[in-house]
Amino acid sequence: MDLSEFNQLSTDDARTTLRPCLDVDRWIDGVVSARPFSSVEAALEAARTSAAPLTDDEINQAMSHHPRIGEKAEGSSAEAAHSSREQAGLGALDGDVQERLAAGNAAYEERFDRVFLIRAAGRSPEEILAELQRRMANTDTDELAEVGEQLIQIAALRLEGILA
Ligand SMILES: NC(=O)NC1=NC(=O)NC1=O
Fold first, then answer.
1. Domain coverage including residue 17
2. Is the ipTM above a cut-off of 0.95?
3. By alpha-carbon position, which residue is closest to atom 3 of ligand 1?
4. How many CB atoms lie within 10 A of CB 52?
């Protein structure tokens, strides 16, 4: 849809449109209430700043919608479609990278007890692996903050796709 359609959506329809971007009510309401936007960039800026930083509870709730990096998104939900598109950008992972990513995901889950989440769009598999290694050294607190930032980056990219 275009920006004027988004600006004119009812509050409920705007909320429904935004939920697959980030399943956090405070973020959704922040973007919905900032309408009408004068430009797509203004809408994206609202998406990048609304509800930031996310709380631990909001992060944990939002995380349930994200498949592992390198794994096919399950189901036919809007979130799954977004994830598939974002991960398609990784291209066909060669065997070695696929294995290293699977091993990295397992190590990350062991260390932080959640799926490794990263904004995949615009990143090569090698960059994602490097980020995974770097973040393994984070404290729990620092890592949770990074996850929150990545969720918001993904949300803004998803909104950009919706408004394209
Ligand atoms: N585990 C993940 O990082 N998942 C994802 N990253 C994205 O950019 N989209 C996803 O679904």
1. 3-163
2. yes
3. 117
4. 14
